Amino acid sequence: MNYKLFVADMDGTLLNDDKKLTEKNIQSIRKLQNFGIQFAIATGRHDSMIKGYLKHIDLQVPVISCNGAIVREPFSDQVFLSEALPKEQSLNVIDICKEKNVDFHIYGHDSIFGESLSNKMLYYQDLNKTLPSDERTKLVTVPDCKDIVVNGSEPLYKFIIISDRNNYMPPIIDRISDIEGLTACQSMPMFCDVMKGGISKAYALQKLSESLGIKRNEIVAIGDQLNDLELIEYAGLGIAVANAEDELKEKADAVTISDNNEDAVAEAIESFLFN
Question: Which terminal CB of the chain, N or C, has fewer other CB atoms within 10 Å?
Answer without folding.
Answer: C
